[in-house]
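Please fill in the sequence for the structure shown.

STRUCTURE ENCODING:
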């Protein structure tokens, strides 16, 4: 019997000033690349994945979803069996 491998999902949020960009990879394959999204949508993605059973996460800068421009990035990896 061959064991089925889980799906590895990596989600990136990158804030550059007033803009937030979303990236998503599944098993290393690009699904979404540099898609510009709203602050509200970015916060929903962050909260949903930050509370999930993540394999690992990393960030640079101070994560803020407020209106003031800032620079940060956040990546999370989730393994779905």
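FILLED IN BY: designer on duty
SEQUENCE:
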């Amino acid at each position: 019997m061959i064991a089925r491998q889980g799906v590895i999902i990596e989600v990136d949020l990158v804030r550059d000033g007033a803009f937030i960009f979303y990236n998503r990879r599944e098993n290393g394959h690009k699904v979404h690349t540099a898609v510009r999204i709203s602050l509200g949508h970015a916060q929903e993605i962050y909260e949903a994945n930050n509370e999930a059973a993540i394999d690992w996460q990393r960030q640079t800068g101070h994560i803020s979803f407020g209106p003031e421009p800032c620079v940060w990035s956040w990546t999370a990896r989730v393994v779905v069996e």
